[in-house]
Specification:
Layout: E1 6-8, H1 13-24, E2 27-33, E3 54-61, E4 64-69, E5 83-88, H2 91-102, E6 106-112, E7 120-124, E8 130-135
Parallel strand pairs: 1-4, 5-8
Antiparallel strand pairs: 2-3, 3-4, 6-7, 7-8
């Protein structure tokens, strides 16, 4: 059994994928647009003019695959009540990735030493996705 996060960016998926590739060194393994689907979406599922939006994408970050989509393309992504945890090997790597995720986002807890990690911090990126960055030794 495997659990994989599936994020709906409601119209900003391609922008998010590009951001994660630059910020985290992620790789897009698969991307399908609504127009490329072998079956059209049900009437009313996406607004007219959204055919070029992302129906489904797979994004590889380290050894994890995140799934992503533009969803219903409403322009109102909501990621409340969930955060993605990013575990790295060094403080320098944590600092670099935390700064990249914080660019255009909002820091919830500055990256710093805690009783459980030499570097831990929380940030909500420019798309509203919550991240916890930690060095876990």
């Amino acid at each position: 059994m495997q659990v994989q996060p599936y994020l709906s960016f409601d119209g900003r998926c391609e922008e998010a994928l590009d951001f994660y590739c630059r910020a985290l060194g992620a790789e897009v393994g698969m991307l399908m647009r609504f127009r490329d689907s072998p079956e059209p979406p049900p009437p009313g599922m996406i607004p007219a003019g959204s055919e070029d939006k992302v129906m489904h994408a797979a994004l590889r970050i380290g050894t994890t695959t995140l799934m992503a989509s533009d969803g219903r393309c409403t322009g109102r992504p909501s990621f409340t009540g969930i955060s993605l945890s990013l575990s790295v090997g060094t403080v320098a790597e944590a600092e670099r990735l935390f700064a990249a995720l914080a660019d255009g986002g909002e820091v919830g807890m500055k990256l710093g030493k805690t009783f459980f990690s030499p570097a831990f911090g929380m940030v909500r990126d420019r798309f509203g996705v919550g991240w916890m960055v930690a060095v876990m030794a």
